[in-house]
TrEMBL record:
<dbReference type="InterPro" id="IPR011611">
    <property type="entry name" value="PfkB_dom"/>
</dbReference>
<dbReference type="GO" id="GO:0016301">
    <property type="term" value="F:kinase activity"/>
</dbReference>
<dbReference type="Pfam" id="PF00294">
    <property type="entry name" value="PfkB"/>
</dbReference>
<protein>
    <submittedName>
        <fullName>Sugar kinase</fullName>
    </submittedName>
</protein>
<keyword id="KW-0418">Kinase</keyword>
<dbReference type="GO" id="GO:0005829">
    <property type="term" value="C:cytosol"/>
</dbReference>
<feature type="domain" description="Carbohydrate kinase PfkB">
    <location>
        <begin position="17"/>
        <end position="274"/>
    </location>
</feature>
<keyword id="KW-0808">Transferase</keyword>
<dbReference type="InterPro" id="IPR002173">
    <property type="entry name" value="Carboh/pur_kinase_PfkB_CS"/>
</dbReference>
<dbReference type="InterPro" id="IPR029056">
    <property type="entry name" value="Ribokinase-like"/>
</dbReference>
Length: 308
């Protein structure tokens, strides 16, 4: 099964307490595509400038990512510069230069329009709705967003949410969008806008999934080394939707397994800067960490009833 992803391809400069890199490969669509490509065929829709390095194109192609939807326009590629303190859950943006991404209009190639799965990465919700109007009856649509759109285009975002199946969003954004400090009540309010489920990313505390019928909590993997959390959320989404597409099922069991695979992929991504860890990652490592995730929260039923 194939996945179409629409989002950003960028050059990032990142500083953390553990190191610093300049103009490395980044962007929401890049992290998602690389992660999802371990499980499924990925078709990327994004825009870069004429300065975008050829080595990054070669890398994406090496992951068998279809780049027919990657536009290259006159001008410079989108750039983001940020830093993290020891609280790696929060990025401090130092500089953003949208460049060619400022006027990005997603163009969906004909061969993409019958994709089975669609991921709308963090872009203008009006553009997200336009993409959905261009694709033909996908089986499942997932959408990510951020506080910039929650604050700037809340009505457009609500409209987009009425057309999707899965909202992937972090805990602070969930509370802000719902105007509700309690994460459970906030998720319930957002579900009323149309999504079948909401997956709340909680960084080092794991993830929560809410649907109208169930709640699922996934732990975060206890890592010895975290160097760069940039792109972890999009890597999570890629692992989640990539797995779902690979088995072509989205029942309760599949969704829970997909969330764990998303957590697995994100746990690898943060071990190094940019996509360096994903570049060297193997499927055997993914399988082994999935097993380790299962052990993290496994416990047996009681053999005897509790007594006072």
């Amino acid at each position: 099964m194939s996945i179409v992803v629409v989002g950003s391809v960028a050059l990032d400069s990142v500083k953390t307490p553990f190191g610093e890199v300049e103009e490395v490969l980044g962007g929401s669509a890049t992290y998602f595509s690389t992660s999802a490509s371990f499980f499924a065929d990925v078709k990327l829709v994004a825009v870069v400038g004429e300065d975008f390095p050829d080595r990054h194109i070669k890398f994406l192609k090496s992951r068998s990512i279809d780049l027919s939807g990657l536009q290259q326009r006159p001008g410079k590629t989108f750039r983001w510069k940020g830093k993290y303190g020891y609280d790696l859950n929060e990025a401090i943006t130092l500089d953003t230069k949208l460049n060619v991404f400022e006027n990005f209009t997603p163009l969906i190639p004909e061969e993409y329009k019958n994709a089975d799965y669609v991921f709308l990465a963090n872009i203008d919700p009006e553009l997200q709705s336009n993409v959905l109007a261009a694709v033909e009856n996908p089986k499942l649509v997932a959408l990510d967003t951020m506080n910039f759109w929650i604050e700037g285009k809340p009505e457009a975002l609500k409209k987009a949410l009425g057309k999707i199946d899965v909202l992937i969003i972090n805990d602070g954004e969930t509370r802000e969008f719902a105007k509700e400090p309690n994460i459970v009540l906030a998720a319930r309010k957002i579900l009323k806008l149309g999504p079948r489920m909401i997956i709340v990313k909680r960084g080092e505390y794991g993830a929560l999934m809410f649907s109208n019928n169930s709640v699922f909590a996934a732990p975060a993997y206890p890592l010895h080394s975290i160097n760069d959390p940039t792109g972890a959320g999009d890597t999570f989404a890629g692992g989640f939707l990539g797995y779902i597409a690979s088995i072509d099922r989205f029942d309760e069991q599949a969704i829970r397994q997909g969330i764990i695979f998303g957590s697995v992929m994100a746990s690898f991504a943060v071990e190094d800067f940019s996509l360096n860890r994903l570049i060297s990652l193997t499927m055997s490592e993914i399988r082994e960490r999935f097993k380790e995730f299962k052990k993290l929260s496994h416990f047996d039923d009681l053999h005897e009833p509790l007594e006072k």
